[in-house]
Amino acid sequence: MTLIFAHRGYSQAYPENTMKAFKEAASAGADGIELDVQLTKDGELVVIHDEKVDRTTNGKGFVKDFTFKEIRKLDASYKKKKLLQKEPIPALEEVLEWMTTNQIICNIELKNGVFPYKGMEEKVLDLINTYNLKDRVILSSFNHYSIVYCYRLDQEIETAPLFSEGLYMPWVYAQSIGAKSIHPRHTAAPNELVRASEEYGIAVRPYTVNKEKDLQRFFAVGCSAVITDDPVKALQIRVR
């Protein structure tokens, strides 16, 4: 069965990359969540997609220029006015601690393509091991050097290169870097690529699959998972 991963949590209805979005995704029946991590000025792992806080919070500036205490004061829900409660940017540790109360799978995307965030890989792996969640976490990144480094640090962790354009025989590439899966943009994942990769033992989890026709295609072809903003819609289509 194709699993459903909620992209930045249930981001269609709730503020992306917040505990509210993750908890609502789990409540809705999603099999997994996808989130993004970066480092604060004082070296704390925080869950946010953009290098700047401007789009998703009421603050301005780069994540890397905030201390953890400062970034926690920002409101990540201010654009979703129907929510009366302020939602802070979560620490990755907060998410992993919550995961010990359920069986959700977590895809952690390392957002280190613009800023290298030295030491981020070690910090992420240490936290995963602290909470004994290695079998429920996938590490992905557009920075393939980073996920190769993660694999070299710990060969038991599942890694997945992200890519947005067509890649020739991606299952061969994945095997060559020790990755057990690939996360292509949905437009770069034709049925033939999905079938061949899965046949060679490489899981395929395309992102960000929101349209009904695309969800239907990936469920029909039998990829390992889809990453979607709307897990409720995906669940409804999967059971048809």
Automatic annotation (TrEMBL):
Signal sequence interval, chain numbering: none
Domain GP-PDE residues, every copy: 2-238
GO MF assignments: phosphoric diester hydrolase activity
Highest taxon of the lineage: Bacteria
Any single biological process term in GO: lipid metabolic process
Matches recorded under Gene3D superfamilies: Phosphatidylinositol (PI) phosphodiesterase
PANTHER family found in the cross-reference section: GLYCEROPHOSPHODIESTER PHOSPHODIESTERASE, CYTOPLASMIC, GLYCEROPHOSPHORYL DIESTER PHOSPHODIESTERASE
Name of protein: Glycerophosphodiester phosphodiesterase
Organism of this sequence: Cytobacillus praedii
